[in-house]
Amino acid sequence: MDKLITCLYRRPSATTRLICFPWAGGGSIYFAQWARLFDESVEVYSVRLPGRESRSQEAFALTMDQIVNEVTHTLLPKLHEKAFAFFGHSFGAFTSFATAVTLKEKHNLEPVHLFVSGVSAPHSKSRSSAVKKSELSDEEFLRYMSEAGGTPKEILQNKDALQMFIPPLRADLRVVENFIFNKPENHILTCGLTCFDGTEDIPHDLDAWKDITSGDFNIHKLSGGHFYLKDPANEKQLVKYITKYLETAEMDYL
């Protein structure tokens, strides 16, 4: 499991595990460090995808199924131990959602809450009209990275650093651009679902996420752009919201 998961703060007595899925091109360390902001009731697992960090020599995942199958196979024993929730930002929102659907359909398991951030629902019509960023020229791709934010200027200005940073980002974008999900006729999950977004990010179709679940549905917008969550004040606010929803879900779970 240590190949897939980074857990910097082990909390055996935690009542809930929060499993975090990275944004496109992202590693596991950012979300693994979130654990310091939660109390002892929450243990944070952060997913490390192939092609980055200690898995840098592995080939990037080519499909969403490939990611979901590895996460599901590796975590399944842990998911039976205690309540768990998913959090995913942008690309990570789709990988966490796809994993939740597979767990529900194949193992009759689902998170007590699904937190998605910075992205339209997978079946939203807005996705079909979006430009395929993975196919942009190098110049256009750098402009996209700069406008999206979240990438330190020293990386954007360093060609050697970019050669390491761009390949996993392009690979993840290809995965999500080829991920097709049609609007479900019926709700496919029953857990609560909360959307987070930056007030200055491009508009996202957040309302469509409520087609996914019969559980409680909420939307919270915090100041900032696509990487609003990196702001320390927003981090604290996110943790506050997540903790509140997990406490409510835990009572229902028990």
Give the helices and strands, then pairings:
Layout: E1 5-6, E2 16-21, H1 29-32, E3 42-47, H2 64-79, E4 83-89, H3 91-107, E5 113-117, H4 125-128, H5 138-148, H6 153-156, H7 159-177, E6 192-198, E7 217-222, H8 232-253
Parallel strand pairs: 2-3, 2-4, 4-5, 5-6, 6-7
Antiparallel strand pairs: 1-3
Helix pairs in contact: 2-3
Structure commentary:
- By secondary structure, this protein is an alpha/beta fold.
- It has one domain: Alpha/Beta hydrolase fold, catalytic domain (Rossmann fold), CATH 3.40.50.
- Helices cover 38% and strands 15% of the residues.
- It contains eight helices and seven strands.
- The chain has helices at 29-32, 64-79, 91-107, 125-128, 138-148, 153-156, 159-177, 232-253; strands spanning 5-6, 16-21, 42-47, 83-89, 113-117, 192-198, 217-222.
- The protein has a seven-stranded mixed sheet with strand order 1-3-2-4-5-6-7, with helices on both faces.
- α2 packs across α3.
- The mean pLDDT is 90.
